[in-house]
Every structure is written in structure tokens, then in C-alpha cells.
Specification:
The complex is a heterodimer of chains A (167) and B (155). Chain A is built from 3 helices and 6 strands, in the order αββββαβαβ. Chain A has 167 residues and is of the alpha/beta class. In chain A, α2 runs parallel beside α3. Chain B has a 5-stranded mixed beta sheet, with helices on one face. Chain B has a two-stranded antiparallel ribbon with strand order 1-2. Classes of the chains: A alpha/beta (167), B alpha/beta (155).
């Protein structure tokens, strides 16, 4: 702030009133339109269009190896099936022949399957009941994306396939 | 406002400090105003997922923000979209034009570097969501960001 210069004859005064009025109007506008948006998170996925599950590891054709007691062995793509109740909530999930009714059980199963260095899975196809609600689907995706591949990378390649009503 | 004048003396309040303060407040509100909110439908109730983390692309990445309500209807910038296929195809064309600035060899049908941000209501059935995701995939989009809150909103 400066002291006003006073001269003998002339006195220059800036009229700040108009500027203050405008500033208050701007302030009122910003206060009235201010609405802090909630912080949203996101799960980043790389979703190629679903491919037929015929990708097999060389030398280990799926279904043709009588020594193979694990139905998942030999496939690059792991398939998870999510079934819904009539109200759109999650009913149960299936990995291979294992059926799970809770997300922690799915987490344990996926951790066991994907951390196996011999598994070779690099992507997951989720077969989803068409009635399943988005929040239940996100719970399943959340479990999937927390898994780590044998290479140490986080699982991020997911595709969705729609199951007809009633699976 | 005007300075009151009396017969002999004039009382002029010094407006400079208040003007300083008001400008500081205006600066604050201008800085925190969220222009991205225009692309978001705040009526949607997003699901709560613990591992969803906020990611700021700092405006360097091309985003296509899709708002899908519980009935499976798509909204872009608050506008209800009737012809989803045509709209997404047009958006893909725009994304392609942007991507060509960095890679002129890109052609229609190639994988687009843009990210599709899916903001769907938590009650949206998968069939409706999948329909829109498939249209995006057919138009070359591969990167998807599924939005969720990472904690429950308190009213």
C-alpha cells in the first residue's frame, strides 16, 4: 500500500468501487458454482476383444495330454465365470472346476493358479452373467487385478464374455 | 458504494485491502474449479472398490468419458445418446485424428492409444455395460479405465 500523494493542486484518485463491485460479483459466482467433486479411483485394464480359448502352450495341447490332471494346465487364458442372483448380486464364481462363493476364496484360488510358474497364464477371460450388476463385477475385477503373474507383473489383460441369463 | 461527503470533511474508506482479499479469493476459486466435472454425470452412484486409485493423466492422454446409468443409457457431456454406435464411431474417428499427430501411420481399425473411461452406475447390469464396451472395442479402443470410489461417500 502506498500513501496518497498529495499535491498542492491536483489529486489523482483511482475509483476502486467499480472494480470492487465486479470482483464481488465474480467471487459470488465462483462461490455459488463451487462444488468439489469427490475423488474417484479407477482400475486400468487392457481389454482386447475376446478371443477363442484355443491358445495353448507349445508341446502341451490342452485336453490331449492324459498325464495332465489339471484342466487349466496348457492354456494361456484363464477363464473365470461369475454367476448372479436374480437381484444382480454375486452368487458364485467358478475357476476351472472349482466353485467359490466368496471373494476371498476366489482371491486364494487365483493366487494359487496364477503364481504357479508352470501355469503360463497371461490373461483372464471373465464370463459374466448378463444380470450381474457393475458393483459386483468390479469386486471380481478388483480381485483379478490384484493378482501377480509369475513374471511379477500385475494382471491387467482382461476380457469379458457375456453369459446368457441362467448361465 | 460511494464515499459519503459531508459539508466539511470527506470520509473515504481505503478499499485496497478488501480488493486484495477479494482477488485472492477469486484466484483460489479459479484454481480449484474443476472443468473435468462437465464430462461427468454426478448423479451416478459409482461402486466402491478398495484398490481403485486416482490417476491423473495431467491432460496428456486422450480420454473418452462414458457415463452409463442404471438403465444402460449412455450420456456424453450430459447429453443422452440415442445412437451409441454412431456416436462412439465418431469419437473414435476424433481419437484417431489426435493419435495421428504422434503416429501418422495409424489407420482406421488400428488400436487407439486413447483411454475409455467407464463411469457406470453400480446397479448397471453387465449386459448393458458389455454392449457399450464391445462397441468401443470394435472401434479400436483397447485401454479402459473403470471408475469407482475407493471409499464410501458420506452424505
Amino acid at each position: 500500500m502506498r500513501h496518497k500523494k498529495k499535491r498542492h493542486q491536483d489529486e489523482v484518485e483511482l475509483n476502486l468501487t467499480a472494480m470492487l463491485d465486479m470482483a464481488f460479483q465474480l467471487l459470488a459466482f465462483f462461490i455459488l458454482t463451487f462444488k468439489p467433486s469427490p475423488v474417484e479411483g479407477q482400475i486400468l485394464l487392457r481389454m482386447p476383444p475376446p478371443q477363442p480359448v484355443t491358445n495353448v502352450n507349445a508341446g502341451q495341447p490342452a485336453g490331449n495330454n492324459p498325464q495332465n490332471t489339471n484342466p487349466l494346465s496348457g492354456l494361456n487364458t484363464l477363464t473365470i465365470t461369475a454367476f448372479a442372483n436374480g437381484d444382480g448380486s454375486l452368487k458364485q464364481m467358478q475357476v476351472g472346476e472349482s466353485i467359490m462363493t466368496t471373494l476371498p476364496a476366489l482371491d486364494r484360488k487365483l493366487a494359487a493358479v496364477l503364481s504357479d510358474p508352470g501355469s503360463g497364464f497371461d490373461q483372464v477371460i471373465v464370463q459374466v452373467d448378463s444380470r450381474l450388476h457393475y458393483d459386483s463385477l468390479m469386486q471380481v475385477i478388483d480381485v483379478c487385478t490384484r493378482q501377480k503373474l509369475p513374471s511379477g507383473e500385475q494382471l491387467s489383460k482382461l476380457s469379458f464374455v457375456e453369459l446368457p441369463v441362467g448361465g | 458504494m460511494s464515499a459519503s461527503m459531508s459539508h466539511g470533511a470527506s470520509a473515504e474508506p481505503n478499499l485496497t485491502p478488501i480488493l486484495d482479499m477479494v482477488f485472492q479469493l477469486i484466484t483460489f476459486f479459479m484454481l480449484v474449479i474443476n472443468f473435468k466435472a462437465a464430462a461427468m454425470d454426478m448423479e451416478l452412484k459409482l461402486p466402491v472398490v478398495g484398490s481403485a486409485r486416482p490417476v491423473d493423466t495431467e491432460g496428456r492422454e486422450d480420454l473418452l468419458i462414458l457415463n452409463i446409468d442404471s438403465q444402460g443409457r449412455l450420456r456424453l457431456f450430459g447429453r443422452l445418446i440415442d445412437d451409441v454406435k454412431q456416436t462412439i464411431a465418431a469419437e473414435a474417428q476424433a481419437s484417431l485424428e489426435i493419435a495421428r499427430k504422434a503416429d501418422p501411420k495409424l489407420k482406421k481399425g488400428d488400436e487407439l492409444p486413447s483411454t475409455v473411461v467407464v463411469r457406470a452406475d453400480k446397479r448397471t447390469p453387465f449386459a448393458m455395460l458389455n454392449n457399450i464396451i464391445q462397441i468401443c472395442q470394435q472401434n479400436g479402443y483397447r485401454k479402459f479405465a473403470l471408475k469407482a470410489m475407493n471409499r464410501t461417500e458420506t452424505p
